[in-house]
Amino acid sequence: MTDHRFLLAAAGAIAAVTAAGLPYRTEITTYTLSSGKITSPVRIVILADFHNDRSEKGTVKLGQRVRGLAPDLILMPGDMAEEHNHQERTFLFLKQLSGIPMYYSTGNHEEFRWDLSQLKQRFRDCGVKVLDEKSETITVGDTVLEIAGISCRQEMKHISPQEISSLFHTDHYRILLSHKPNWQELYKDVDCDLTVCGHAHGGQWCIPILDIPLAAPSQGLFPKYVRGIHDLGRGKMLISRGLVRHYHGIPRLYNNPEIVILNLVPEPVKTDR
Fold first, then answer.
1. Number of other residues whose CB lies within 10 A of the CB of residue 130
2. Cα 254 from Cα 52, distance rounded (Å)
3. Could you tell me which of 202, 208, 210 has the C-alpha nearest to residue 29?
4. Could you identify which of 21, 101, 149, 262 might form a hypothetical disulfide with 254, taking C-beta atoms 3.0 to 4.6 angstroms apart as the criterion?
5. pLDDT tens digits, residue range 177-188?
């Protein structure tokens, strides 16, 4: 084979491998957690890192899909909007979900905005509870959840575990919304049952077959905290891979966008044998 043909063949192979890994669908990932604080089951959908990244038609379809999952409530741990001015697809998406209890804390891209206070008001106008250093309770069946949120900060040292723990005022099942999963050292000392994060986009690119994430913000190469549920000792951390398909023009590879379903259930009854 001539050098010219070899280069063409190599380029074709690279293009084929890349095309095969593009984000061709949004996956649904389901987790189940049990707790003695859960009296009756609760179905939660977690939506993170939307980044205003859909066509109008795609946004409507995504909203219909989420509604079809029949969640009791929706949690959004940041970056539902971008740092730029026009966020109409984000608000179209939120309006699609009207009537479902929604709870939101900011991500780093939203914190970059000069009009953040107006953005938060538009979220509220869409029926979203904006959790800025405060908590809200919600009752689902016989279960009460207390959900708190903290605004995204540049550095972990700008808030302490004690400050976050003080946001909770009940002994019900405690959930914290906080955008950055790489702050696991902070969360492990917070007095709550579950921390919900986004930010890492599942590692953006993953190695095919091996399914190893390549990189994530603030974690560098081969990051650990990009998806799934992690045990923090006192509580757990759940990380959504997020909904964005292209980040500043860089597509995901072998790492599809994700809707997370979290089922909270009572602890199994122990029986003596």
1. 20
2. 21
3. 202
4. 21
5. 999 999 999 999
